[in-house]
From TrEMBL:
Superkingdom classification of source: Bacteria
Upper classification of the organism: Bacteria, Pseudomonadati, Pseudomonadota, Gammaproteobacteria, Oceanospirillales
Domain Photolyase/cryptochrome alpha/beta span(s) in chain numbering: 2-134
Source organism of this protein record: Halomonas binhaiensis
Name of the protein in its database record: Deoxyribodipyrimidine photo-lyase
Keyword Flavoprotein: yes
Length: 469
């Protein structure tokens, strides 16, 4: 019986893994994980994401061992080296097939095509599968046959086209006979893990992902539509790190939502329907990354915005990064990011729009900073969110929509609880005064004055965008 090599990447789970399920149906399986540290760092991932990734690979090895599937680890510095490394491993093992789940950003897609061509040229079977999303890019298109560039019609097409078969979950493989091939010893985490706050904040693995899903659905989802925008409330699923690395599948999430919502996805319980919408947003950005590869190459989706006259003041950018802007909600959010490797989604929008509109700093600088710190740093979602805030991307906020940070703070952190938690300097102030302390209070507690006046910054941003027309 022929041996199949299963290549894991950002699909670090045994249950409901399409390629693993299909590989195990053929016969014995040996798994491999390529540790591409140099490439990941070139792509901008920092210690938090990489540490969580490698911890997830180690957790995967333990899970696979329960099915007698050995996991081999190979250090392959760049994607260009992946085809040769995988072919050499397959030939050493005597594997006749390579199975993997597809990834859609430009570099990953080019790597995978090179792997496919290498194996076929060598006369070996290679199979890839749609796993991370419900529809292959190109399956959902506009009436003109184009990729969607606006979320709402994409979402409507998604709901209109979804079939039960696309949400069916795949069984974990049966326990195979003990293989003569032994798993590699669990690799030690690299030295960069010492700089990862994620090691204290997040536990890797599909079991932990399932625990988060159960807690969210049993305790929080019914109020999700109301609570998800309030950062002081534990109102979100906290599943984004697990979804970004495939420690849980979108199918498991969708099935769990339908089970609680009488089989419905777009209607029914407002919390469940809203959460499903957020899962579809993740898929939308995967389609964008594939259909418009320029966004994977540091380019704006709205090409005319490449001519924007960004200020790019290094002192302003440093103040934003360090949480010293003088706007409490911005500074509290940036400190949450730096200390936990995660930021509440409402705050991601507020801080991104502040950097791009108030400080007129190129969105690419903020995008890179987030990716370097986020444990859930997903390229497509991060890029899509930043370009939305900067009014340069798909489904972008109109350029004249410029959040007032203080208004946002009062609306979504009304009692100043989140601010007090992350800015101890302001914790002694009454909650209502934490949003925009007057100069006397700022001086008393040692909190800086605002970098820029909101109205002045707003007019400057409007003028800058109008100059494009």
């Amino acid at each position: 019986m022929s041996l199949t090599l299963m290549w894991f990447r950002s699909d670090l789970r045994v249950h409901d893994n399409t390629a693993l399920h299909m590989a195990a149906r053929r016969g014995p399986v040996v798994a491999v994980f390529l540790r591409s540290m140099e490439q990941w760092q070139q792509h901008g991932h920092g210690a938090n994401k990489i540490t969580f990734w490698l911890q997830g690979a180690n957790a995967l090895g333990k899970a696979l061992a329960q099915y007698n599937i050995p996991l081999l680890n190979r250090h392959v510095p760049t994607f260009e080296a992946a085809p040769g490394a995988l072919l050499a491993l397959a030939e050493t093992l005597g594997a006749t097939s390579l199975y993997f789940n597809r990834e859609y950003p430009w570099n990953e897609w080019q790597r995978d095509q090179a792997v496919i061509n290498t194996f076929r040229h060598a006369g070996l079977d290679v199979q890839s599968f749609r796993d991370a999303i419900a529809f292959e890019p190109g399956e959902l298109v506009t009436g003109k046959g184009d990729f969607y560039s606006v979320f709402t019609p994409f979402s409507r097409a998604w709901h209109r086209s979804i079939e039960a078969s696309r949400l069916n979950m795949f069984d974990a493989p049966a326990c195979q006979s003990l293989a003569s091939i032994s798993a590699d010893p669990e690799p030690e985490l690299p030295t960069l893990s010492a700089h990862s706050v994620a090691t204290q904040q997040w536990v890797s693995g599909e079991q932990e992902a399932s625990n988060h899903l159960h807690h969210f659905l049993s305790q929080q989802v019914h109020l999700y539509a109301r609570d998800r925008d309030f950062p002081a409330i534990s109102g979100t699923s906290l599943l984004s790190p697990y979804l970004s690395l495939g420690m849980i599948s979108y199918r498991q999430c969708m099935q769990a939502a339908m089970a609680m919502n009488e089989g419905l996805l777009a209607e029914g319980n407002p919390g469940l329907a809203t959460w499903v919408k957020e899962l579809i947003w993740r898929e939308f950005y995967q389609h964008v990354a594939f259909g418009f590869p320029r966004v994977c190459k540091g380019r704006a989706f709205q090409q005319h915005t490449e001519m924007l006259a960004w200020r790019n003041d290094p002192k302003d950018f440093a103040a934003w990064c360090e949480g010293h802007t003088g706007y409490p909600i911005i500074d509290a959010a940036m400190r949450q990011l730096r200390e936990t490797g995660w930021m509440h989604n409402r705050l991601r929008m507020i801080t991104a729009m502040f950097l791009t509109k108030h400080l007129l700093t190129d969105w690419r600088k903020g995008e890179a900073f987030f990716l370097r710190h986020l444990v859930d740093g997903d390229f497509a979602a991060n890029n899509g969110g930043w370009q939305w805030a900067a009014s340069t991307g798909t489904d972008a906020a109109p350029y004249f929509r410029i959040f007032n940070p203080t208004t946002q703070s009062k609306r979504f952190d009304p009692d100043g609880q989140f601010i007090g938690r992350w800015l101890p300097l302001l914790d002694a102030l009454p909650g209502k005064q934490r949003h925009a302390p007057d100069p006397v209070l700022r001086s008393e507690v040692g909190y800086p004055a605002p970098l820029v006046d909101h109205q002045v910054a707003r007019l400057r941003a409007l003028d800058t965008f109008k100059a494009l027309s």
